[in-house]
Write a structure and sequence with these properties.
The protein has helices at 21-61, 67-71, 160-165, 167-178, 190-199, 229-237, 247-267, 274-286, 297-306, 338-347, and strands spanning 63-65, 84-91, 111-119, 127-130, 136-139, 142-143, 149-150, 153-157, 184-189, 203-207, 211-213, 218-220, 223-227, 288-291, 316-319, 322-324, 332-334. The strands form six sheets. A seven-stranded mixed sheet has the order 1-14-9-2-3-4-15, with helices on both faces. It has a two-stranded antiparallel ribbon with strand order 5-8. Strands 6-7 form a two-stranded antiparallel ribbon. The chain has ten helices and 17 strands. It starts with 20 loop residues before the first helix and ends in a 17-residue tail after the last helix. Helix 1 (21-61) runs parallel beside helix 8. The protein has 364 residues and is of the alpha+beta class. 38% of the residues lie in helices and 20% in strands.
């Protein structure tokens, strides 16, 4: 037998030094993975808690009104082909955060802006009908939020309805004068409007002529301007710098700005910027009042998603046809038969005839 055959065959079954070390490495690996998993769990729980807090905070910002309870059964029938109709109100309250916006000192609040937004079935287009705030209307009997009742009255200014009986009575008044059932209403005040514009970084508008209005503080040269929140508020409120200085003259500016604002919002990459999304949502909901059907983030989001097909650039804007009142030329009344023709088209979800868009009182 050779010497080689008696030599231990260590190479066949190598036993590297530190054989127990892999076990320690495995233990260390398991510990690291455990730490990572616990860290992820904490982060998820923290994110979930933060998300719930943010959701609750935004949700509690929204004030809701039960229209059916506030108005009662005396409402137009909801027709199957009437699409969606939303009353959009801009409140001119000077209380709270609104007091510091330089909009003057006026007690109470009125519907400074009122538009009926009609979205036909299919939701691919929309029509906005502005109601001049100086329009003389018949106010129906209403019940205030505190339960007290206000009797009906003839020849009252449209924007006085809000200050006397609140937003639900404005909805009831619009329904009575139009025969169109409002599916929803949305109200935003001065501070909310300013905050929304600032949150999205401003809105661009183009004016053909220079506008100089000492009352609103608006001072624009002809051309395109990127307006911040304060300037935007002055833009939609200016009246002395356009047309005949009446409320009718500024309706065109309000409609122009609404389309520019909606277009800007649609172009924003909100999903790409959670911080901006929250900032916009917080600013908007802090000053938002809606009907119960929209009074939550979930309901607002669902409704917003259903409106994705509507292109602001194709939105039609119309002023309710009005004529100067014979007894008081500083006031207007619904012009007939144009107004009835317009509302009939909205009720039946049909295209509004050109004849129904012509207003004897233009304000220009």
């Amino acid at each position: 037998m050779s010497h080689a055959s008696t030599t231990p065959r260590r190479s066949a079954t190598p036993a590297p030094r530190g054989r127990r070390k892999p076990k320690k490495a495995k233990t260390r690996g398991r510990r690291v993975r455990r730490i990572i998993l616990w860290t992820l769990l904490v982060l998820v729980l923290a994110a979930g808690g933060t998300g719930y807090w943010l959701y609750s905070n935004l949700n509690s910002n929204i004030d809701g009104v039960d229209l059916d309870k506030a108005i009662g059964a005396d409402r137009p029938e909801k027709l199957p082909t009437s699409g969606q109709n939303i009353l959009v109100l801009g409140s001119d309250s000077r209380s709270g955060a609104n007091a510091s916006l330089g909009t003057g000192k006026v007690s109470g609040a009125r519907s400074d802006t009122a538009m009926v937004l009609h979205i036909p079935e299919g939701r691919s287009r929309a029509t906005a009908v502005s109601i001049p705030r100086d329009t003389l209307v018949t106010r129906p009997g209403c019940t205030k939020a505190d339960g007290t009742k206000t009797p009906s009255a003839d020849r009252v200014m449209f924007n006085s309805v809000y200050s006397l009986a609140g937003p639900a009575c404005v909805v009831k008044t619009v329904e009575a004068m139009s025969g169109v059932r409002m599916d929803h209403f949305v109200e935003i005040d001065f501070a909310g409007f300013k905050g929304l514009v600032d949150a999205i970084g401003g809105v661009s508008v183009t004016v053909d002529k220079a506008i100089h209005d000492k009352s609103s503080g608006l001072d624009l040269t002809a051309g395109t301007h990127k307006l911040d929140g304060t300037e935007s508020l002055a833009f939609v409120r200016t009246r002395h710098g356009v047309g005949d200085g009446s409320d009718l003259g500024r309706i065109g500016l309000q409609q122009q700005f609404m389309i520019a604002l909606l277009s800007e919002i649609k172009q924003q990459d909100l999903l790409g910027s959670p911080t901006k999304t929250y900032k916009i949502a917080n600013s908007l909901t802090e000053s938002l009042t809606t009907d119960d059907g929209l009074a939550s983030l979930t309901k607002l989001a669902t409704f917003g998603r259903s409106m994705r097909g509507v292109d602001p650039a194709s939105m039609e804007t119309i002023m309710l046809p009005v004529a100067y009142d014979k007894a008081d030329p500083n006031r207007v009344v619904a012009a007939q038969p144009q107004a009835d023709t317009l509302w009939k088209a909205v009720r039946s979800d049909r295209e509004i005839p050109e004849s129904a868009k012509k207003s004897p009182a233009q304000g220009s």
